[in-house]
Amino acid sequence: IKKHITVSFVIPGIIPSKKNMIWADSNLFKLLRKLYSFQVVKEAIDWLRLNLKAFIRNSEKYKKWVADNTPVILDQAAIEHTKYEKHGLTFPLDNVTVKVYHYWADNIARDNSNKYDSIIDLLVECKILTDDSWQVVEENKSASQCYHGEITQHLTRIDITQRFS
Description:
Elements: E1 3-12, E2 22-23, H1 28-35, H2 42-51, E3 57-58, H3 60-84, E4 96-104, H4 112-125, E5 137-146, E6 155-164
Parallel strand pairs: 4-5
Antiparallel strand pairs: 1-6, 2-3, 4-6
């Protein structure tokens, strides 16, 4: 017998597009070309080459959004867990489908797929989902519509359906 449970989360406000707010930049290679002309620092440069690590930095705006919405998600998860614990629901979830619906309070153009990525990363960080691989999130859907004049605040609803074997 196959069964499934759908849990829902609501996030108020605008979801930042994480991938539009990250950056990686360096003038390291320009500096290295100049520094290699000075033999005195060759050993330091070689050490630097061995130990330097590249990384991507998230914006402060995105980090604040995550910090502000983590307790929102965790509070809602506690309610959903209490409601469905008797049916075997435990977090983190795996083998799920995720449906995201944005209720926009204005008609500004927004990219649903970028918002979806931010939401999924938040759900993984909050340990709602095991990870964001296709083996965990087999199917996803993101949709939106303008509700100008009907709502005063942007809202995003996330429905996660956990499939049980």
